[in-house]
Design goal:
Largest sheet: 4 strands, antiparallel
Number of helices: 4
Helix content: 40-55%
Shape: rod-shaped
Strand order of the largest sheet: 1-2-4-3
């Protein structure tokens, strides 16, 4: 019944009032259309545009990382493809250089290397005991060991404070590196 009263009200209006009421109704419908349809569409489009830009940045970064990985994988790293005797010498010289650069050469108490074989690779573990080292020296040493060009990884680390001096530490670090087995006959371990 309210519809009949609305029609009777509409027919009771003058022509000019009908135009004003019609224009007002058109504005209300246009505003509702903008609020309920157009604005959500534009917001969704902007979100999608920003999401695409973010994903493109991520994709570019992944492409860059993939290129770096392929370059590193294709390069001849010192820890891969060396002969058994050469790899021991190369590992010792790399560690010597790292210890010298971290200013820890004089603090090294013990240095032991063991070798084991897994399928086509051999694993070289080196345990280094360092006495009376400061935290910044140890951090520099650990950072230098983990650099990709050295081909070594930290397998285990144990740090204790020196009993008498609290600013010094004692550390036992086990490093691990891999290498391919030589293609020739197997040499006995020394």
């Amino acid at each position: 019944m309210p519809f009949k009263s609305l029609i009777s009200y509409w027919s009771g209006l003058r022509k000019r009032e009908r135009y004003v009421a019609g224009a007002g109704l058109a504005w209300v419908l246009l505003i509702l259309f903008c609020l309920l349809v157009l604005m959500p569409f534009l917001e969704a489009r902007d979100k999608l545009s920003h999401s695409i830009k973010r994903q493109e940045k991520v994709l570019q970064e992944l492409i860059s990382l993939d290129e770096q990985y392929r370059r590193l994988k294709g390069s001849k790293a010192p820890s891969h493809g060396t002969g058994r005797g050469d790899s021991d010498f190369a590992l010792s010289s790399r560690l010597d250089g790292i210890l010298r650069e971290a200013d820890l050469k004089s603090q090294v108490q013990d240095f032991q290397t063991t070798r084991s074989s897994v399928k086509n690779h051999h694993v070289v573990r080196t345990e280094i005991r360092i006495n009376r080292v400061k935290m910044d020296q140890l951090m520099k040493f650990l950072y230098l060991v983990e650099l990709p060009e050295h081909g070594m990884r930290i397998d285990h680390i144990s740090i204790t404070r020196t009993p008498a001096e609290t600013e010094y530490l004692n550390a036992a670090v086990t490093l691990k590196t891999y290498g391919k087995k030589p293609s020739g006959p197997e040499r006995p371990a020394a």
